[in-house]
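Technical note accompanying the year-one report. For the benefit of new consortium partners, we illustrate the data format agreed upon in the data management plan: each record pairs a sequence with a structure-token string. No post-processing was applied to the example shown here.
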Amino acid sequence: MYGWLWRIIPGGTGVKLATMLVLAGAAGVVLWYFVFPSLEPHVPLDRVTVGR
């Protein structure tokens, strides 16, 4: 997948690297603000059951 992205992004190495960093950042933002909050109610990470 990364090789495919590298080949289809136009420009030189610097432009490709900057574009890949922006795409990775955008993916992180989408995950952090949209995907993870929608999954949080379904994942019991903050329910402590040890010691009760």
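Partners are asked to follow this layout when depositing records. The radius of gyration is 18 Å.
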